[in-house]
Every structure is written in structure tokens, then in C-alpha cells.
Design brief:
Elements (H helix, E strand, L loop, with lengths): L2 E3 L4 E3 L9 E10 L10 E8 L11 E2 L11 E3 L13 E6 L9 E8 L2 H4 L6 E10 L5 E6 L9 E10 L2 E11 L2 H8 L3
Parallel strand pairs: 1-10
Antiparallel strand pairs: 2-12, 3-7, 3-9, 4-5, 4-8, 6-7, 8-11, 9-10, 11-12
Length: 190
């Protein structure tokens, strides 16, 4: 039974799962039919952050244009252009054993592609979530469902996977930003 998280809640992934090595981060969404009626192309990404809270270089940014971190620890599984269908719309695989020692945290984000020109924002998206599953067993460990109170935001930090006292933990962030991907990249040092 997965742990359902609320904004700001933190939970250990490895304390109850000794030997956990591979996790899948799934991100999903639906579109509110009464809004624009057009496709929403949401793009998931992972920023691999040092203890400064920033990337050490551009290779620490994993997204649909740069699918695999040089360490092999973080792999984006491809871009879903419409969000159609059930289940995860985009996935990122993490091999915890390969995360470089200088990476303290992995921030999972999602942005709306061409949000300004399409006049789209996260207030037009429903049922958005981030979840984490044990890749080996398929068991969903945690899930964070976002609300629909993001009427001007075009990018979001959904959550962070981080190291703390030898454990891997997850923090449900749910912070929205105007400014799309540019705002996120600037905030994380790109």
C-alpha cells in the first residue's frame, strides 16, 4: 500500500525497503476538457543537485533532450506529447547505487511546453501526480497528488529525492512557478 503524501511531507524510501536499488518516478496528468481543448505537452525533468542546491554542469539536467545522466543513475524514458491514456505519462528511472557522491538531491520537475504561446497553465491540468515505485517489484511506494490551484504557473517542482544519514528520502514539494523551464533552469544554476 503506497504512502499518500501531502505537500511538504517527507518520507524515507530505504528505511522500510533495505536493499532498494532501482526506482521508477512516474508523472501523470489529465487535461480539463472545458479549457483550451488542445493538447498539453508536459515535460518531466530531473535536476541532479549538489549540496549547493544547484547542478554542477549541464549534464546534471536530465530531460527529453538529454535522456541519461553520464553516471547512468538517472534515465528519462521519453517524451509524451499529449498526456493521453491512463497511467504514467512520463517516467524517470533512478539507480540509487549509481548516483554520484557529489549529488545530494534529485529534483523532479514538470513544465508545460510552449505554455505562453498556447495560453496554458497548470490550472488547466487535472489529476497531476508524481509517484515512486520499486522497479524490481512494481510496488508503488509513495504518491503525491497535486491540487488544481496553480492558475498562473507554467512549471512545477513536484518533489525531491535526497540523501539523509545514509537513507534515501522523498520530499513532496508541489511548488509552482511562472516562467516555465527558463525559471527552473535559472534557479538550479543553468
Amino acid at each position: 500500500m503506497p504512502v499518500s503524501l501531502k505537500k511538504g511531507q517527507k518520507v524515507s524510501l530505504t528505511k522500510g525497503n533495505p536493499g532498494l536499488k532501482n526506482v521508477v518516478v512516474g508523472i501523470g496528468w489529465d487535461i480539463n476538457a472545458f479549457d483550451t481543448g488542445g493538447d498539453f505537452d508536459l515535460d518531466a525533468a530531473a535536476f541532479c543537485l549538489t549540496d549547493s542546491g544547484r547542478v554542477s554542469d549541464s549534464n546534471d539536467f536530465v530531460f527529453c533532450g538529454h535522456l541519461v545522466h553520464p553516471s547512468g543513475a538517472v534515465q528519462h524514458m521519453g517524451d509524451n506529447l499529449t498526456g493521453a491514456g491512463d497511467g504514467d505519462d512520463e517516467q524517470i528511472q533512478i539507480d540509487l547505487s549509481k548516483v554520484p557522491a557529489n549529488i545530494e538531491k534529485i529534483a523532479f520537475t514538470v513544465t508545460i511546453y510552449e505554455a505562453d504561446s498556447r495560453m496554458q497553465n497548470f490550472g488547466m491540468v487535472s489529476n497531476a501526480y508524481i509517484r515512486m515505485s520499486n522497479e524490481e517489484t512494481g510496488e508503488e511506494m509513495i504518491r503525491y497528488d497535486l491540487g488544481e490551484d496553480y492558475s498562473t504557473e507554467t512549471s512545477m517542482v513536484l518533489g525531491e529525492l535526497y540523501r539523509h544519514n545514509g537513507e534515501w528520502k522523498f520530499n513532496a514539494i508541489g511548488a509552482g512557478y511562472a516562467g516555465g523551464l527558463t525559471a527552473l533552469c535559472n534557479g538550479y544554476g543553468l
